[in-house]
Amino acid sequence: MKNLLNIFILLVSFSALCAQETKVPVMKYEDLEKHIQKDRDKLLVVNFWATTCAPCVKELPHFMEVNNKYKDDPKFKMILVSLDRLVDKERVIKFIKNKNLTAEVILLDDIKRMNTWIPRFEKNWDGNIPVTIFYKNGGKVHFNDGEMSKQDLEKTINNELK
Q1: Hey, where are the domains in the chain?
Q2: Could you list the residue ranges forming a coiled coil in this record (predicted)?
């Protein structure tokens, strides 16, 4: 019985340690813009989403399948930009773990200035999510407004990786 208790304590400790390992950097628009520009040598897939957005949550498993397929390609990177509020960061972390999100996740804490930064990402973006923007060689090559199917995501990636 004592061994069983020790094993239980060890498992709980390990779970707590794993829970602390998920890190979600918090950025303002300017920091995110710099972060995107530093990966100029890759096809960068940047998806804007939120845990409270049903279409966003629906498309994320497709994004993870595609990310897992291409993650070892040195010319590919996926970033998931959460537009959840900073006070909901713990909910975002739990969501990442529960949904097994394997792509890099960033929390964009800049909602008050969204009317400034949204048109800087894309002039035709009306602020709705999900939105996915593809960058190659530091420049935007494709903008997808709304939910994206796995097939469309893969087709866009394949076209741009050529």
Answers
A1: 23-161
A2: none
